[in-house]
Amino acid sequence: MASITLDNLGKIYPGGTRAVGDVNIDIADGEFIVLVGPSGCGKSTLLRMVAGLESITEGEVRIGDRVVNRIEPADRDIAMVFQNYALYPHMSVRQNLAYGLKNRRTPRAEIERRVTEAAEILQIGPFLDRKPRALSGGQRQRVAMGRAIVREPAAFLFDEPLSNLDAKLRVQMRLEIKELQRRLRTTSLYVTHDQLEAMTLADRLVVLNGGRVEQIGTPLEVYRKPASAFVAGFIGSPAMNLLDARAVPHLPGTAHAGTIGIRPEDLSIAANGPIEMEVTAVEELGAQRLVHGLTGGEAITITLPPDAPLSETLRLGFDRGNLHLFQRETGARIN
Amino acid sequence: MKRTIFRNQLLPWLLLAPQLAITFIFFLWPAGQAIRQSFLREDAFGIKSSFVGLANFRGLLDSAEYLNSLKVTAVFAVSVTVMSMGVALLLAVAVDRMLKSARVYTTLLVWPYAVAPAVAGILWWFIFNPTVGVMPYVLEVVGYDWNHISSKTDAMILVVIASAWKQISYNFLFFVAGLQAIPASMREAAAIDGAGPVRRFFDITFPLLSPTTFFLLVVNIVYAMFETFAVIDATTEGGPAQATNIMVYKVYFDGFIGQNIGSSAAQSVILMLIVITLTVIQFRYVEKRVEY
Ligand SMILES: Nc1ncnc2c1ncn2[C@@H]1O[C@H](COP(=O)(O)OP(=O)(O)OP(=O)(O)O)[C@@H](O)[C@H]1O
Ligand SMILES: [Mg+2]
């Protein structure tokens, strides 16, 4: 077990692409950190720098109190779960699990013990003598996890490990990963572009945008008080409404704001509310209704109970405490 | 598969005709002739021939020269295959690790394949020529007296190098493609699993390359056994003292120079059987992906 520190970390690929810059994160021992952001924002690059699969061009990575910039992946005491699982196709599940231990000259009996234990935790015992190609996607995913846990490393690194699974399995595996991490208390760094996955797994979230950190915080902090318009729009589903202040000049309590944010669930129908919404589309989700429309030319969405009355125009009200105000140029939060 | 319907019954046959004709004239008909001749014996003047059953085949198996040729062929084919595949794999692994100039090296390494076998033979014959060649000169410096005209070993080494050299390009291309088909994450996972570069190669890369390796193994054996005729002819002509007289060269030598048509035909038939066997093995195992 160990803490991980990313100190002013940056990466410029040969050819000059800057993928990551000025990243500072302190990960406590046993903490589950999720890196989340849109495609191409540098999540994998960041993770791979911690793993040692990508050279570090700026700053420092420390695992425990050791600077690992120049240390080989094998000697960083980390285990990684890849998006495509990267199981060795010509080895049985047992050999896949044992390979890392064998390379480290772990005694045979110890390997046997750890493999059996991991197989039990992950319920892959019946498949130990199969080749990976004879497993389902979910089972392969478990084997990939197993390969990480038998090593008993200081940290787990996950690069979108669930993105190849179907939606239902993804939810199930998400819970299992969380459960497993709680039990093993191993420091984890987890990459995903799925904000729901990020919210449910993380002790703390790191929201990345264009290679830079937008916000670090617990899922609730990030949800309740997004540090920028980007985070506000990225975290939460359905996404927060972000209105240009010039389009809705009459809204109370919005002085000095460039962008006004309000979550669809924080809006309600109010006979003389300050927002007039022209309804353009309705999505029935069963438990609720998603109503899309326009106000002052800006797109706006509201969630309503399934039995709420609808008309072509709706008047909407909100609680001022639920407003999120951002600067126009920088997108930074101002309230 | 897409099925095209031809209205005219004749048209498809007409379209196939040139290919069928070529196959028949240059392959099926000579093959049939070889099989027929292998059961016949011509008289001394080549006027009359009589049916002799398996006598030609029995004669071959009793002939020390033919048994020697079998042995020489085996040594030659194995050496050429090991050398051409070994060197090609080494180069491919080196290029696979390079990012920048991989293309340049690939292009350079592919050139030898465009050289005709006879030209390759003459090229190496010159390089190793005891009087004018550069290699004997270099070898003399380290105290080796090279002479492929009198030394059986030197002659064998010469034909192996000349034959393998050309094939390296071909193998190299397949190995590079094979290496690039292995996901990078596989090797990265192994690196994290504590395997050094050498371990990674033998535990991960090489096993995953086995379909390519197996395919090339068959292709190279076939090449060494059948397509190296020109190399032998341009360098050693089977000598000295039969040391490089591989089966395919012996067929030509006994048939055209020795005029022993019956024996030569029987040798062709044996070669044909070997090709068929190799081809069957190829198809049986390449389809089921080898090793995993
Ligand atoms: N080997 C490379 N050479 C040059 N540029 C690269 C390389 N790998 C990634 N990049 C660039 O770096 C940026 C970040 O890439 P990265 O793979 O880290 O994104 P990501 O956040 O993981 O995206 P995704 O969610 O799609 O996996 C991208 O703009 C990408 O084009
Ligand atoms: Mg990625």
TrEMBL record, chain A:
Transmembrane segments: none
Alphabetical list of SMART domains matching this protein: AAA (SM00382)
Matches recorded under CDD domains: ABC_MalK_N (cd03301)
Ranges in coiled-coil conformation: none
Keywords: ATP-binding, Cell membrane, Membrane, Nucleotide-binding, Translocase
Source superkingdom: Bacteria
Residues covered by the ABC transporter domain: 4-235
Xref: InterPro entries: AAA+_ATPase, ABC_transporter-like_ATP-bd, ABC_transporter-like_CS, ABC_transpr_MalK-like, ABC_transpr_MalK/UgpC-like, Transp-assoc_OB_typ2
Cell division in keyword set: no
Single GO MF annotation: ATP binding
NCBIfam families assigned to the protein according to its UniProt record, in alphabetical order: PRK11650.1 (NF008653)
PANTHER family per UniProt: MALTODEXTRIN IMPORT ATP-BINDING PROTEIN MSMX, SN-GLYCEROL-3-PHOSPHATE IMPORT ATP-BINDING PROTEIN UGPC
Protein name in the entry: Sn-glycerol-3-phosphate import ATP-binding protein UgpC
UniProtKB/TrEMBL annotation, chain B:
Keyword annotations from UniProtKB, A to Z: Cell inner membrane, Cell membrane, Membrane, Transmembrane, Transmembrane helix, Transport
Domain of life: Bacteria
Keyword Transit peptide assigned: no
Residues in ABC transmembrane type-1 domain copies: 70-282
Signal peptide as annotated in the record: none
Spans traversing the lipid bilayer: 74-95, 107-127, 155-177, 208-226, 265-286
Keyword GTP-binding: no
A Pfam family assignment: BPD_transp_1
Membrane topology qualifier: Multi-pass membrane protein
Compartments, as annotated in UniProt: Cell inner membrane; Cell membrane
InterPro entries in UniProt: MetI-like (IPR000515), UgpAE/MalFG_permease (IPR050809)
PANTHER family assigned: BLL4140 PROTEIN, SN-GLYCEROL-3-PHOSPHATE TRANSPORT SYSTEM PERMEASE PROTEIN UGPA
NCBIfam families, A to Z: PRK10561.1
Protein family according to the UniProt entry: Belongs to the binding-protein-dependent transport system permease family.
Cited function: Part of the ABC transporter complex UgpBAEC involved in sn-glycerol-3-phosphate (G3P) import. Probably responsible for the translocation of the substrate across the membrane.
This protein's name: Sn-glycerol-3-phosphate ABC transporter permease UgpA
Organism from which the protein derives: Paracoccus marinaquae
Encoding gene per record: ugpA
